[in-house]
Structures
1.
Amino acid sequence: MGSKRKKNSFVSAFDLLVSDYQTGGMGDGEYSPQGFLSGWNIGNEAAYKSFPNKMKEKPLTLPTQEIEQYWKWNYDKKLFQEELQEDIFVPKYMFFILNGVLKPAIVWTDGIPITLPEVETVIMYRKELAPKKGFSKKPDFAITTKHELDPFLSKYPTRERYVNYYFLDYDYDERPKEIINFIKNLAPHKEGLINITTDKILDSELLEKYT
């Protein structure tokens, strides 16, 4: 959002022209966001047309709307965090393979104050709340779901910023005991996590159009 405004201001300030000869592009002349997106979308569709002949494995996909929501949330994360100062954490959407399935997820550390967005999978990183092994603690992580967290989350207000999110605004030193106990009692995840970068995730509707 902010970067688009800066780009348009930059183009206007220096009275720049573009030369864009990609299919569906702007050609020679004035820059326009609509023209840029048109060329981008047409080029994207052309790439998807070629995928069926190149795919050796089943591709990783998510619905168009979800991809856009996750991207907007992550893109706006820094600004959102600045608005909230340091009192409450804004997580980033990440993507993992769990039990052979692509899962959007966020990481929540030790039950800290958080803006917890709509997500099916929550990775609980435990440092302070890690279970004791002998006389020491070793950081680990556990995996839970929003369904399991609903009894706690329903007590907090929901807001919207590209996606709905829960606003868990409490002092770190006064974290609710029920949340702390829930996190402590989760079984540690023994297997590794396969992190998936966003460039590996395809638009399911667009891919289905050409397969």
2.
Amino acid sequence: MIKLVIFDLDGTLLDTLADLANSTNYALNKCGFPIHSTADYKEFVGNGINNLFERALPEGEKTEAYISRIREKFLPHYSRNNNRYSKPYPGIPELLAALSSKGFMLAVASNKYQQATDKLVKYFFPEVSFIAILGQRDGIPAKPDPTIVNDILSVAGVKKEEALYIGDSGVDMQTIKNSNVCGVGVTWGFRPRQELEKYNPDYIIDKAEEVLGIVEVL
């Protein structure tokens, strides 16, 4: 019986791609590097912002020093602009409300840095009571390492078999396997269905409301 539903953030709850692209392109431009189309960023995001910057930098320039410079320019710009174009995916607010009304505990597990994760969740879903909102934290390995899921399970006081994890990328599908929890891949996010299928999650869905049917049978 499922008691806890854990959501990835970027590409699952929120479409954040345009704001991530705009702030990264701002930082790249300030540092004298070429910028990318918003669509390119679908392949760059998912493993935390340092990996985002490394992927966005030109070949031969992917050094720690340049990543640090991009990060320095990115953070204040993104902090000011991270909700300019971002928005919940269709059906997500309704899904969260329905799950809450049915008594499920809700949590967020993201590779976005903690400050931005917390800010965006509270901005877009102020009426939702999440038992945990965890992003990438210093000293804690990022997904697909299972630590973030295990931390949420501990806060919620539930067993692995009582949790459902929902995400949009191969990183999320690996997190599901590494955490040994039931998992759902969603096709409305940043990555194609084929990437999800490669990891053979328990479910792949196309619409947010399909989650309700899953939690009712598990």
3.
Amino acid sequence: MLSIPLIAGSTRRDRQSINVARYLLAKLQQRPGVATELLDLLEYNFPIMEERLHRRDDPPPRLQEFGDKLAAADGFIIVTPEYNNGYPGVLKNALDYLLPEYERKPVGIATVSAGGFGGVNCLAQLRPVLLAMGAVPIPGSFRVSHVHDSFRADATPADPKYDQEAAEFLDEVVWFTEAIAARKALAPKA
């Protein structure tokens, strides 16, 4: 069974990206052979990072739990809004707490925006950060433009095109996760 949790990368009031995260979570839960859960940064509420988890003997509340879940994951998905052409500081803060937990893990990135470009600038900035941390951002992405109109509060899309796009995105996330997990099983890193 593959473990592919989703990180909800915003804590903003009235955030719309959580609807997209819940939608992708529901779609991923329907996939056989995949275990998933939503890791909502709003629920974790980490303070500003002072030192990485693996270098602390006094981690903030729930940081060890968060780190353990990502360490045990075969891959993960980040769902984040684009704020001012970038990604939220709360997401960068949470990512910076960890490092070995990301090594050689595929990451699917879903971005949302209030405007018409679906968070493409956020996506472009987040990929090199993940690469620098040792993760493997997959080529495909799931982008949602005009999120206020595109997704309802019950986490369903207003446009059925998102069902096909989500299926293709999740196919790619699962493919990369299976491929990398299989390679790791053959030759684990020493």
